[in-house]
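By convention, each integer encodes one residue's backbone shape. The lines below illustrate.
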Amino acid sequence: MVRALIGSVLVGVMCPLVGAYTITRNLAFIGDALAHAVLPGIVLGYIVGVNPAIAAVPTGVAVAVLVRTVSRRAGLSSDTSIGILFATMFALGLVMLANSRTIRVNIEDLLLGQILAITPTGIYVSLGITLMVILGLFTFHHWLLFASFDPLGAQVNSTRANSADYAFLVMLALVIVIGIQAAGIVLVMAMLVTPAATAYLLVRRFVPVMMTAAALGTAAAVSGLYISYYFNLSAGPAMTLVASGLFVLVVSVRGRAQA
């Protein structure tokens, strides 16, 4: 339970921090796509006996880089590239899972998350990823903010803008790996997007949005963890429902205030 609590806090903080950029750049769908696309890496980790969190990292990074590369070289939109890679990688993962006789894992745990089963290695991997992503956000924050609010201006300096885009996709993939352990493949997008969207309704400036989103995400993750524990529910759906409940509450209060 202590490991689950640590993992929940990391998910609650990191997913909304990166999610704030994701919403601003209109890339909410890519979070769901990357979550499904890392399935082959997770399955491969179970097959070879490596912690799934470790095995998912290179897969997520590779897919994130491929999304940008395919978009540029094939002249396709990001949504099209994401859709192709998402479907291909998820199908590959399902085929690997169906044909492996050595894996003893419940597919429901992969899809919906099982934070109570997180291992010490999983916690160390999540902490390492957290430090890397925070360092990356600190390094590329200026360019990510510039490209988010002024994409045409960012294209003038295409080299730095492209580097920032690649860095953002890699950081997003890393955060997805953290989120999958708690919310699962299906629901990780909720922790990525919903707290950040709620924060956008409460504050105006971008950095306060990030901080507010992290606070809301932490509250949703920890509350969802305890709800799942006491009511015998899956952690991922419980966290998602709490995050969604906070969003509905803020929308309701905001609507009454404006009325």
User: Anything to note?
Assistant: The chain has a mean pLDDT of 82. The radius of gyration is 18 Å. The longest helix spans residues 158-202. The CA atoms of residues 220 and 245 lie 9 Å apart.
